[in-house]
Design brief:
Shape of chain A: globular
Order of helices and strands of chain A: HHHHHHEHEEHHHHEHHHH
Largest sheet of chain A: 2 strands, antiparallel
Oligomer: heterodimer
Radius of gyration of chain B: 21 Å
Helix content of chain A: over 70%
Number of domains of chain B: 2
Number of helices of chain A: 15
CATH class of the largest domain in chain B: Alpha Beta
Distance between the termini of chain A: 11 Å
Largest interface: A-B, 29 and 31 residues
CATH topology of the largest domain in chain B: Rossmann fold
Strand order of the largest sheet of chain B: 2-1-3-4-5
Strand content of chain B: 15-25%
Helix content of chain B: 40-55%
CATH superfamily of the largest domain in chain B: Response regulator
Largest sheet of chain B: 5 strands, parallel
Distance between the termini of chain B: 27 Å
Shape of chain B: globular
Low-confidence stretches of chain B: 7-24
Mean pLDDT of chain B: 89
Chain lengths: ~325, ~400
Amino acid sequence: MKRGLGIAVWALAVVAVLVLYALAPQLVSDFHSRDLAQAGVFFIAIVGLNILTGYTGQISLGHGALMAVGGYTTAALCVHEHWRDVWTIPLAGIAAGVVGFLIGLPALRLSGIYLALATFAFAVAMPSLLKKFSGLTGGGQGLRLLEQAPLQVTGLSGTVTLFGHTTTQNHFLYYLTWGIGLVGFAIAWLIVRGRLGRTFRAVRDSEVAAASAGIDLARTKTLAFAISGVYAGVAGSLLAIQAEIVNPLSFTFLLSILLLVGVVVGGLGSLPGMVVGAFFVEYLPEVSTHVSSKPGVPDFVYGAAIILVMILLPTGAGGLLRRVARPLTTRLYLRP
Amino acid sequence: MTRTTHLLLCALGALALATVASGAASETGVTSTQVLIGGTTPLSGPASAYQSVAKGAAAYFRYVDANGGVNKRKIKYVYKDDAYDPSKTADQTRELVQQDKVFAIFNSLGTEHNLATRAYLNAIKVPQLFVASGATTFGKDYKQYPWTIGYQPNYRAEGTIYGRYVAKTNGKARIGVLYQNDDYGKDLLAGLRNGLGKKAKLIVSKQGYDVDDPDVQSQVAKLKAARVNALMLFATPKFAIQSYVYAHKLGWKPAVYVNAVSSAANIMGLATAGTTKKQTEGSISIVFLKDPTDPHWAKDAGVKLYRSIMKKYKGGNPNDVYAVYGMSAAHTFVAALKKAGKNPTRAGIMKAATTLNITNDPFLLPGVSVRTGGSDHFPLDQAKLQRYHNGHWVSFGGLFRVR
């Protein structure tokens, strides 16, 4: 009886999410569905970062740079190799996954704040690295998909036809991004609730205890970095597809910090909270300029908002969700 | 490439048919009382000195609106901050087109920035008018991008002028170039080489910088180390001022050639304030606008009009020469809008913009006209050389056509 109710609640939740996914762009103007798509990019990146930071306990301040790897993979394939933009997404994910694995290697020796600094260095160095290899990356100018590879851009004329169904480019980008986001979310959910997720959490809670329980620390940490890198790469790729331009300015270390803010606001170790984190990161800058666009005011509002959220919701939006849902979950899972 | 162009043209053709089929009601952004146009400008970031361009233009539109507008329509001009970041320009421009539904994009600032939106605007046939960049491509490549047109004298021609001048006056110069490492800086550099012709080997050092670099200290030091005595500053205002300051700190006084986008009297004033009068004395640049800070124009009707508009319609600091540039571009837009007729369409204003002949722009030097037509898609192509003397620019030589 209880089990049946549990399944029903789950089914209802999944249906609700899918309906929301399908209808959301109809609720806002065509242009704003592009903003939603951009929030989707943050969503994917911070779901990935959450696996690393929230579940495995490894702080990364370098995820913006991993997004750059994905974004540039997409842009370079379109411009130099004439790939169609959407087909580059898997490769962008793999490329960033490999780089994520590589920056995971120092994580074997460093921990906590030292690891954060090492990854931060990676994020700071990224723009200069991009300028260094200007033949591939276009240097400081970056790569302009629209200018240099217009035929590789899906929806150049403003509409996209898919399975005989025509939609605007903005809607297409929304469905593409959040479609990938939902799949990514499901995969992340499967990972964290399974054996691998338990391993991750064990490493997070105590490396010594995890090692003595037979967990291969090196393998677990680098794997978490690689998985998280794939998410960042896919997000970076989608960012490039949406912006139709990549340059070193789009991937400064501020992006890495923004992602970390998103994860913390969303709630470390909570997956549904990431939606809130993504919207926070996407819309707060805009909201803060609405308060007043006088110099300094938006930054002040932005900072104050983050501090306020941290005071009111120390466990992030995910913690709040858990608390709200507790009466329901305890009733469902309590053994009679 | 030809196949690419061909396919693109097919796509454009199909889009044109679709537009025709949907029936031509009133044009997007045009109502019986208003014409809505928009653009991007750096209100913040490394090139924020240029924001006066949009402010000057906005003041002129308010002046026109207060005097009855164009064909009883007021011109509403919205400008958005892109912080001089091309990816933001793309975003903001899309918002202007899709959300605000502007009639045309007007005078958006920056070379990279307009390049980032050009293919998009051309694909959906939204006019990209009087681009605030002198990159040659905006005038030269009109066949591929028929919905785009530039405004000021092009950078390549400007570089050529400096090259010819140095070749003529100082055949033994050791030329050093500081250039912004993008299409704008490279365009000027190519022009310089072209103007020097056989003497191109006089260039002994070229130092590029990126817009997001904090400063150009090391570049200036390298140029000095190369024993440069003729320094080309193909840089935006912030970096041009820095160059004067660092050169001064190094005790180095080369002959300076400063590109028109940084030679505004207010920028030179800052460069002088940061160094000494001797450091900026003798700098050379080109000019096509009336400089409101020049006593020579104090009683000029155009400059008086400019000053009264700036005061009455809140255009900001009237001694900011970039505002004159914005006002001149706005003057040209108004002329094109008038020419496009009682019911302006996007195609109509493009036609008007490419067949201009304005000889009465009060903000331009006497004799400078705004002319386009046939294969000439460069509205402004005349300029004079000027020398910085005693805290003011003094023009010399005749007016010549820059091509």
